[in-house]
Each structure stands twice: as C-alpha cells, then as structure tokens.
Amino acid sequence: MFPNVPWCRYADDGLVHCRTEHEAQAIKAALAARLAECHLELHPDKTRIVYCKDGSRKGTYPTIKFDFLGYTFRPRVVKNRKRNSLFVSFTPAVSAAALKAMRQKTRRQNFRNRSNLSLNDIARIYNPVLRGWLEYYGRFRPSAMYAVLRHFNCTLVAWAMRKYKRLKGHKTRAALFIESIAKRQPNLFVHWQRGIVGPFA
C-alpha cells in the first residue's frame, strides 16, 4: 500500500519514516484498519506521530521525541568536527528508562554487600554486562552512559567500605582506594579500559 515508505521493526515495535504529516496520518489509519482485521490494535500510548525536528526543520509540533529499543531520539546540539561548529541534529542516545534499568540491575547484584568477593571476582562477573551495555548503548552519544558507570563506580566504593574495616564509614578514603586501583589496574573493568574511571564518590 505504501511501497516507497521506509520502515523498521523489532518484535512488536516499529517505526515508519514519513515525508509529511498527511502521509503519517494516512499510514496510521491504514495500519489501524489492517490490525483490526486481525483482531489487534495499535498500542494507544506508544503509537504517535513525531516531528523529527533539527536545525533545518523549522516547524512546531507537540511531539518531537520518541523512544525505540532503549534509545531516545530527539533534537540535540552536536558538533560538526570538520567545520568546528555546533548545530541541532535529531539523534539517539540511551533512554532514561534504559539507564534506570541498568542501575537497577547493578543494585540487584548487591555487590556492595558481597564482601566475600574480591574486586577481581566482581570484574569477572560483571565485565560481560558492562561490555554489553557499552557496545549497545554507547554506540551513540557514549557520554550519556556516564551516569550508569558512575553509579557502578560508587557501588565499588560501597563494597570497599564493607570489605575492609579500615574503610568502614570513610567514603572519601574508600573512593581514593578504588581510584588508586583504577590507576594501577586500568584494564580491570571494561569501562576503566575506556578511560571512564571517575568520579567514585
């Protein structure tokens, strides 16, 4: 019905790239009708028309961002390295929901209370997870991942405070302790290898 309209899908989530709002409305109506024939319906909260606003698109619309597969797509100020100038582009970065889910996963591991583990044990257990996050969510605007990685570093500080009696109740001292290990063993954790070392407190 719309052979020239690019689209993409993952499981039951999908995107259709339209040239005009009129085209978007027509496709939305056609999809709703086709799904109804199959006794299905479009998700009422997820289904919406989004204006992909950037520096070249001057229109004003109520919705200018959307989430898809753990990314938030919205207007952002980016740098043109060739011209050394800033401009507004419609680009992806890890979503707030994905960041929250990653922090929750770290909390569920409860490393801060697992004083039976060594730092090498934690690295062995969690490096595959950290690597997966960085490879997927760090592909676009990797600086957006810093909040999650800082949270993990702070978890290591809490672990050190519980692991070593001399550090109990001394957050700053524990932070300096973990930081000194990061300097001596920068390859211990995946994000340390990439220079994402601090802050630890």
Task: Describe the overall structure.
- The chain is α+β, with helices and mostly antiparallel strands and 201 residues long.
- It is built from 6 helices and 5 strands, in the order E-E-H-E-E-E-H-H-H-H-H.
- The protein has a 3-stranded antiparallel beta sheet with strand order 3-4-5.
- Helix 4 (146-163) packs across helix 5 (171-184).
- The chain is elongated, with a radius of gyration of 22 Å.
Key traits:
two-stranded antiparallel ribbon; 5 strands; 3-stranded antiparallel β-sheet; 15% strand; elongated; 43% helix; alpha+beta; 201 residues
Q: N-to-C terminal Cα separation, in Å?
A: 56 Å
β content, as a range? 15-25%
Largest sheet: 3 strands, antiparallel
Oligomer: single chain
Q: Pairing-aware structural class of the strands and helices?
A: alpha+beta
- Tell me the Rg in angstroms: 22 Å
The strand order across the widest sheet is 3-4-5
Tell how many strands the DSSP assignment holds: 5
Helix content: 40-55%
Shape: elongated
Give the low-confidence spans. Answer: none
The average pLDDT value, as a whole number, equals 91
Following the backbone from N to C, one meets helices and strands in this order, namely: EEHEEEHHHHH
